[in-house]
Amino acid sequence: MTDDDDSEDDDEDNLLRKTGNLLGKSISLPKGIIEMKPCLNANHERESSRPLTTVQFHPSAQVVMTAGLDRSVSLFQVDGKLNPKIQSIHLEKFPVYKARFSADGEQVIATGLRQKMFYVYDMMGGSIIPIPRIRGLEEKCVQEFDVSPDGTYLLLNGTSGYVHLLSMKTKELIGSMKMNGKAIKAGFTADSSKIFSSSSDGEVYVWDVKSRRCLNRFQDDGSLCETSLALSKNGRFVSCGSSSGVVNIYNFDDCLQSTNPKPVKSIMNLVTTASSQVFSPQTEILAVASHTMDDAVKLVHIPSFTVFSNFPVQGKSKIIKLARSMDFSPHSGFFSIANNKGDALLYR
């Protein structure tokens, strides 16, 4: 080992000391400047020639998944240095629109660009299970979906404002909920008891999972069309992104009780569609991005709701390119961005 290696390890130790052990043990993250270090791409051992549509960290193992238009789902071990490939599966004639781990981390669910069927990859058994037409579900195409944190439900966005609730275990239809506009995004609350769904007319609906009854609906402040949605793991915040690039962060309780809630903060740093967003597991950071402009990724400090000024690094060349998907590792030690160049950028 060289002196340079020693100093690099020292730098890393200092970084971990300042941010807590992968941020998990930090009391609170300071605002203003975030200490981040670019690592080798998460998918370095299997780069994609097509845009990636998904990056997601495994809920319990030190593993990251990528998926995209090259019709593959790949798993990598995350160490920030080598990120060795664990395995990769190819789905014939199936460009992946979105992929997600099941809550227990034993399966991967993947939807395609234009297919009504979807796939379940059983990682324990090594089998790839096609889920063909679901009885009672008259949808020509299944793309957008979410998995409930407790592992009980699968939520599929349908056409004509429908959101469909399925059993995660049997993949059978339990029931459907209908909004006025087109269903854009939908997600479960951290305790899996409620669903938030956003529509093309700027409205957000709150549903009770068990009864599938609408508990509340409200107009996202100033929004003409919803484009993204994120719910914090600590159950305190709901974040709504719109086609104008504005991201409104609301108090969770206000969204349940008011038909006209006021955002606690409006993030105005994106100037094009706010297409994706994700809270870090400890609700210390909200990452927001637009897939229509290079380097359009911002990290918002919670609870000050201020944007970290040093990310992305403003150089002559755009590094991030068009961001398609983002995720934080379970203890927030790593952050990854999947882009249209087929890279899963990784930061420590």
Automatic annotation (TrEMBL):
rRNA processing keyword on record: yes
InterPro entries for the chain? Utp18, WD40/YVTN_repeat-like_dom_sf, WD40_repeat_CS, WD40_repeat_dom_sf, WD40_rpt
Record keywords, A-Z = Nucleus, Repeat, rRNA processing, WD repeat
The ranges of the WD repeats are 188-217
**Pfam families, sorted:** WD40
PROSITE patterns xref list: WD_REPEATS_1, WD_REPEATS_2
Q: Which SUPFAM superfamilies is this protein grouped with?
A: WD40 repeat-like (SSF50978)
**Where is this protein found?**
Nucleus, Nucleolus
The family this protein is said to belong to:
Belongs to the WD repeat UTP18 family.
Q: Which PANTHER family match?
A: U3 SMALL NUCLEOLAR RNA-ASSOCIATED PROTEIN 18 HOMOLOG (PTHR18359:SF0), WD-REPEAT PROTEIN-RELATED (PTHR18359)
Name of the protein described by the UniProt record:
U3 small nucleolar RNA-associated protein 18 homolog
This protein's species is Staurois parvus
Query: Could you read off the lineage of the organism from its UniProt record?
Result: Eukaryota, Metazoa, Chordata, Craniata, Vertebrata
